[in-house]
Amino acid sequence: MLPQMVARVTLEIALRKEFDYSIPEDLAGRVEIGSRVKVPFGSRLVLGVVTGLPDSSPHTNLKPLADVIGAQGLVTPKVLALARWMAEYYCCPVETALKSVLPDAVRKEEAGWRERLHVHYLPPTGELPKLTKRQEAIWRILEEWRELPLQELLRLGETTADTVRRLEDKGLVRIGSQIDERDPYARELIVPTQSLTLNPDQLNAFEQITRSLATVAPGGENPPFLLHGVTGSGKTEVYLQAIDHCLTLGRGAIVLVPEISLTPQTVERFKARFSTGPRATLVAVLHSHLSTGERHDEWHKIRQGRARIVIGARSAIFAPVDPLGLIIVDEEHEHSYKQEEAPRYHARDVAVVRGQREGAVIVLGSATPSLESYHNARRKKYRLLELHTRATEQKMPIVRVIDLRLESRKTKSGAVAIFTPELKEAITQRLERREQTILFLNRRGYSTSLQCPKCGYVAGCPNCSVALTFHRAEQRLLCHVCGYQEAVPKQCPAPECRNPAIRFSGLGTEKVEETLTRLFPHARIARMDRDTLKRKDDYRRILTDFRTGKLDILVGTQMIAKGLHFPNVTLVGVLYADLSLHMPDFRAGERTFQLLTQVSGRAGRGDVEGEVFVQSFTPFHPAIQYARRHDFLGFYDQEIEFREQLKYPPLARVALLTLKGRNEDKVKFTADALRKELDRRLSAWRDLVIAGPAPAPLLRAESYYRHQIMLRTKAMARLSLELTALQTGFPLPDDLTLTVDVDPVNLV
Ligand code: ADP
Ligand code: ZN
Prior knowledge:
Layout: E1 6-11, E2 18-22, E3 36-41, E4 44-52, E5 67-69, H1 77-89, H2 94-101, H3 104-107, E6 114-121, H4 133-145, E7 147-149, H5 150-157, H6 161-169, E8 173-180, H7 200-215, E9 225-229, H8 235-248, E10 252-256, H9 264-274, E11 282-286, H10 292-303, E12 307-312, E13 324-330, H11 347-358, E14 361-366, H12 371-378, E15 383-387, E16 398-403, H13 404-409, H14 421-433, E17 436-440, E18 450-451, E19 469-471, E20 476-478, E21 485-487, E22 503-504, H15 509-519, E23 525-528, H16 538-547, E24 553-556, E25 569-574, H17 578-581, H18 588-600, E26 611-616, H19 622-628, H20 632-646, E27 653-661, H21 664-681, E28 689-701, E29 704-713, H22 716-729, E30 737-742
Parallel strand pairs: 9-14, 9-15, 10-12, 10-13, 11-12, 13-14, 16-26, 17-24, 17-25, 23-24, 25-26
Antiparallel strand pairs: 1-2, 1-4, 3-4, 3-5, 6-7, 6-8, 18-22, 19-20, 20-21, 27-29, 27-30, 28-29
């Protein structure tokens, strides 16, 4: 075998193994590390990525590569290295990690480039030949435009392709096929914007970031920045100017935003700033609402180095920007940065790793930082940048908490209406003043917690500080962390209450909309949640109607909690703040605090001061009270104490093992065996807590039973290696699967 004629390939079908192939002569010049290739495997052809070009192979009789996809290696060596790290840390095969670093559209190269016929004007060499009226009309159009897609020309000239062919025969035009880039934002009118004069807080943040840009080096000591600023404090303006500076240094930037806030509004702000001027560059957008073709083209604009700025959701962290100068993770606390299928990576954490490896500056921004990130800032692992006030004159909205227990005492049955009189009155006022209202109900939470409508008592676990979950089949209350269980009480257990009408809470946005229509028959109302957004354009259409004043009230789930900027919204109502509070998750308080703060941030973004009503059965819960006072630090200090006591993140890291199968006894039995195996393998670890097995909060999902074991340690990188070994070394019955989730954000 000649040197350099072997390609080591990771195949897409996860086999946790690499295979050697020979490189046939006709492909020799086109194979590099990161090339996507098609190779024979058994009797079929499969896709893979070249992960090495060794001088020789220990194997003989290598099969040749069948084909190379694309003109350039698609996985750059830097991204390849990142994928390897990801596979190790998140306990998954390299093949699986590699699969997620390229968009499907690029990976499969089915979409390809779109070629269309274009007509080009050719200056006449001599005297103009005789033309019919119609031919001349067409020719004049082209004389003006110089070049047009054929279809466009036919539309403008109201003629057929025949006429154009005649002109081609006469040597006046040339028809050729040409790549047409699909631009998802082609129809948007983008008005360029200029940098704003930064206020002192913003300037400080900007200067620290740019100073860091001048000094970072790959692998160097670079602590990431945590930019903490209330909603509307001007974080985005800091990002924009930092990116601008980054471009002057000849480096590109990646901006991650949660899928949900990747609205046309957000994209437009970035495009508008960078669409003109001396450093004008393409801004590529990557998210799931693009067509396959659009995604293909956007990605290749980045790979070719034409787009230097990428804005996108989670997977945009793998965009092949090179050299990379800046990574911004906006709303860094958002749980949608975590991928819920293998590879179960957290894009914020991958961003930190990538930034440090490539010598890029990392900026994590949020109005409500995650406990993890703020803890890092306190420990000086991150550098804290703070924006203390809103950038414009607007005040923070006034937040009023309404005690639903008082409401329930007013009725015989102990039941409460969806709208308290205070909230009803506030909505009426807004309708009269032609101002707008947003009503929020977090329906995704569990509606199965047991709560007393009279006193607000919620059944909780004595060992774990999480709410117990009602399991209908067994009619029992269960703790999903430690397995503790008890019978469903016949009356409220709180000694001073004893309400016999204790029950399970449950209420959805649909019911809210229906009630609202009855209460305010003349109001124009729209609902926004997963059920109402059926078509691709629904989201944009509803938001446009709301912005242009065609709607008075918008009802929705957390989909409407974030990022939206509507100056005419002066009232926000949170109908039932307790839903997210009693999820069986140690982050329930944190999530509630974040949600309330985010929703409140939607009010009073214009000239009129905003007002927020929060209806709750537990109005004195710290998450609600600190959100009411816009007091992040207060919330952090009391929450971190609770995490410390129980050794929950950020004081330790968590790995969650979930066993799934159709037969519950088998799942349970195997989970017990798995626990024993863990005890045996890890008995020497002092810094390790193993809890469970216990039934998963969602015990049965899609007809699979799930049992979980939770591990907590500070040394996660080391535990990851152990868990990978366990995955390959622990024999599982055929019909069971084991998933390993490192740093889970979702415990169900
Ligand atoms: P955030 O990203 O923190 O929510 P934005 O960057 O969206 O905040 O800023 C909120 C509003 O304040 C926007 O309308 C923005 O144009 C404006 N703004 C930001 N910085 C300034 C500034 N330095 N001067 C004037 N207006 C500003
Ligand atoms: Zn428990």
